[in-house]
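Hello,

Our lab assistant flagged a job as stuck in the queue for most of the afternoon. It eventually completed. Since we weren't sure the result was trustworthy after the delay, we are filing this so someone can double-check. Below is the sequence as submitted and the structure that was eventually returned. Let us know if re-running is recommended.
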Amino acid sequence: MSEVERLVREAAGVASLPATDHAHEARIGAVSFLHRFGSALNQHVHLHVCVPDGVFYKTATSDAASAGVAFLPARAITPGDLDTLTTRVRTRLIRWFRRAGLLDAEAAANMLSWEHSGFSVDASVRISLDNREVPSYAKSQEQLVRYCARPAFALQRLGVVGGDKPEQVRYTLLRHKLGSPGRIGAESEGTGS
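-- returned structure --
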């Protein structure tokens, strides 16, 4: 998260804030969700994070009682920004694994040299503030947070096999839904409940 904050601070131009404001204290707001699973109920540790496109900072006023908080929007995050962020995250994590004794020096150096590191950052979902008066805006926010906070499995994908006396519970994966004989739950889609 510190690397994400670093990127957003740079993209917001925190260095350009007036010296009278508290630019050095500008921070992101974020909500993060630790996931330990993939869509096939496989082990896949990763984070989902909701971050605004900018930073918050305390404004300077002559009267401390009327001091406020301002939001400084960031410029658009580019694919190059995400590549840089991914490299920073990968480097920090591999170094941490090395210090923690989880990797030896040779393995850490080897992993740092890989072209395809296994680390990725996706910032493709964005909800524009331009649309905040549109009724779908709140629904979009809710859908994003629901996706980030979803449980390990979707109830819509669970089914019972065995008639009156159930013998098995089956979890149907998306790739098995079409053309799979005896599929269960194929008529309902969902990301969780």
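-- support follow-up --
The delay was a queue issue, not a problem with the job. The result is valid. Residues 89 and 109 are 15 Å apart (CA to CA). The helical segments are 2-12, 79-99, 105-113, 136-148.
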